[in-house]
Amino acid sequence: MYTGTMINDLMAAVERAEHCTRELEAVETVELRMLASMYAQPMQGETVFMGAA
């Protein structure tokens, strides 16, 4: 039976899907930035501390 909440339920489902998508994109962005920083070449004259902790 129709309860009158169908539109609200659909909007809530879309918001949940968008939230999950944004979280996945954020994780992928962080991972890509980490990879890019690992493979980025240092600029000339830039001090490089390889293996320093």
Q: How would you summarize what this structure contains?
A:
The protein is mainly α and 53 residues long.
Please, what is the oligomeric state?
single chain
The biggest sheet, with number of strands, parallel, antiparallel or mixed sense and barrel status, is: none
Average pLDDT figure: 80
Number of helices: 1
Distance between the termini: 64 Å
Percent range for β-strand residues: under 5%
Based on DSSP secondary structure assignment, what is the total number of beta strands? 0
Helix content: 55-70%
| Content-based structural category | mainly alpha
Shape: rod-shaped
What does this structure look like?
The protein has one helix at residues 6-39. The protein is built from 1 helix and no strands. It is rod-shaped. With 53 residues, the protein is an all-alpha fold. The protein starts with 5 loop residues before the first helix and ends in a 14-residue tail after the last helix.
Annotation keywords:
53 residues, mainly alpha
Which SSEs are present, and which pair or pack?
Layout: H1 6-39
